[in-house]
Design a protein that fits this description.
Blueprint: E1 3-12, E2 15-24, E3 46-48, H1 55-59, H2 69-72, E4 73-80, H3 107-114, E5 121-125, H4 147-156, E6 161-164, H5 175-183, E7 189-192, E8 202-207
Length: 214
């Protein structure tokens, strides 16, 4: 429709000023096209709930909206790992500048040397130097937790948040058993698909909030 101008009066600090305001000349109903988005909760950066891998937890309703927000918001230690070694419970390397390199020394010794404060989450990054998150196809060569690495972490620390800078916390070869270890007690939350480019190792304040979709 044609548009004509009128003036509206605004008062600021006791002085009135007039500004033009556009309005339609004729009243008409606004029409448009409705767009709908539908995607998996595993798109982009996401969390894994117990119901993701356990049918009885799924049936009981333990999905993403039942996770503890206090765990998802708070301090977290970012550690760096070798680009070509998965994280196991038997092998690690000496601690160097708050980085974990998993090749020779025992993981318990490395983990203890980190002196992770209670209530702190752990986020692992391989710096995504190959830009795996930017590839269209899923790449199975990413760095992730093996089952024994997850078991050691779950049994020997009080870490409740475990994150990784790719779409899966678990190593490709042990995806299901690793998830079972992390999620079977409903105590650990997995945070996957993080973007950690340029984030050095150290303690950070993490805030992972859900999207409002209702």
């Amino acid at each position: 429709p044609q548009v004509r101008s009128r003036h509206a009066e605004f008062r600021r600090r006791g002085r009135a000023r007039r500004v033009p305001v556009a309005r339609p000349q004729h009243e008409e109903r606004l029409t448009g096209q409705r767009v709908m988005m539908k995607f998996s909760v595993h798109s982009g950066t996401h969390v894994d709930a117990p119901g993701h891998v356990f049918d009885h937890f799924y049936d009981a309703g333990f999905d993403a909206d039942t996770l503890d927000l206090e765990v998802l918001n708070g301090p977290a230690l970012v550690v760096d790992v070798h680009r070509d070694k998965n994280i196991t419970g038997m092998h690690g390397d000496d601690l160097l500048n708050s980085h974990i390199h998993c090749t020779n020394a025992r993981t318990p010794e490395v983990m203890k040397a980190l002196n992770i404060p209670k209530g702190t989450g752990m986020i692992v990054t391989s710096k995504d130097f190959r830009k795996l998150m930017w590839k269209k196809e899923f790449d199975t060569s990413y760095v992730g937790f093996m089952k024994d690495g997850a078991k050691w972490l779950a049994e020997n620390t009080d870490i409740k948040l475990v994150g990784l800078d790719y779409l899966n916390v678990a190593a490709w070869d042990e995806g299901v058993p690793t998830h079972h270890v992390f999620l079977e007690r409903r105590e650990v939350i997995l945070l996957e698909g993080l973007k950690l480019d340029g984030v050095p190792a150290g303690i950070y304040s993490v805030h992972c909030l859900p999207l409002r979709n209702r």
